[in-house]
Amino acid sequence: EAGVVQSPRYKIIEKKQPVAFWCNPISGHNTLYWYRQNLGQGPELLIRYENEEAVDDSQLPKDRFSAERLKGVDSTLKIQPAELGDSAVYLCASSYAGTSGGASNEQFFGPGTRLTVL
Amino acid sequence: AQSVTQLGSHVSVSEGALVLLRCNYSSSVPPYLFWYVQYPNQGLQLLLKYTSAATLVKGINGFEAEFKKSETSFHLTKPSAHMSDAAEYFCAVSGRGNNRLAFGKGNQVVVIP
């Protein structure tokens, strides 16, 4: 079974430029998450999707960040314009909520995209 | 809101010695608790989770953790460290009824031959 796929793996851009990250979750997983992991820190949730609906985006800086999950499968996270402080690893994860709500379900993580903003 | 505290960012352990990583949680509702491992340039992988069944939870690679409500702790242990255990370990908590995982800052484990 293929895991969570993310691309690109690495991205270097200059500040004020736009950037986009792509995620393909595990087949059949209806819940998709985007996390940001700063150096030396644990991941922090940016947004969570249940199918195509963003159900938790309270941590997403909406002035410059946007995300979409068309058709409830793949997802794209965009930053426009990027700032120096956005340098981090952006992780995508997915899980299957089933009928239990899914809070105890394992989240499967992709390898992440390491963003460097110069 | 739920949170976890992991003390000591770097932990050195001799090969064959006990691995002990401490995690204390804060939660206003009965929590779900998780330990994840992250190898260099890879995503996080679940080691084990506590979901209110047995308080002693066994995971992959010989790791286990014990949920102690009285101490609000969920410490991770492995009796004998192996070189392949060198990685970063994260404790995480979520509240029942939501899927938001709150991670600790992590412990970077170094195994000394």
Entry keywords:
heterodimer, A: 118 residues, mainly beta, 11 strands, B: 113 residues, 12 strands, 53% strand
What's the Cα radius of gyration of chain B? 13 Å
- Give the helix/strand class of chain A: mainly beta
Largest interface: A-B, 28 and 25 residues
Uncertain spans of chain B, ≥5 residues at pLDDT below 50? none
Number of helices of chain B: 0
**CA-to-CA gap between the ends of chain A?**
37 Å
The share of residues in extended strands of chain A comes to over 45%
Helix content of chain A: under 10%
Broad structural category of chain B: mainly beta
H and E order of chain B:
EEEEEEEEEEEE
Give me the strand/helix succession of chain A: EEEEEEEEEEE
- DSSP strand tally of chain A: 11
End-to-end span of chain B in angstroms? 41 Å
User: How can the largest sheet of chain B be summarized?
Assistant: 6 strands, mixed
Share in β-strands of chain B: over 45%
Q: What's the layout of helices and strands?
A:
The complex is a heterodimer of chains A (118) and B (113).
Chain A: E1 5-7, E2 10-13, E3 19-24, E4 31-37, E5 44-50, E6 53-56, E7 65-68, E8 75-79, E9 88-95, E10 108-109, E11 113-117
Parallel strand pairs in A: 2-11
Antiparallel strand pairs in A: 1-3, 3-8, 4-5, 4-9, 5-6, 7-8, 9-10, 9-11
Chain B: E1 3-5, E2 10-14, E3 19-21, E4 24-26, E5 31-38, E6 44-50, E7 56-58, E8 64-68, E9 73-78, E10 87-95, E11 102-103, E12 107-112
Parallel strand pairs in B: 2-12
Antiparallel strand pairs in B: 1-4, 3-9, 5-6, 5-10, 7-8, 8-9, 10-11, 10-12
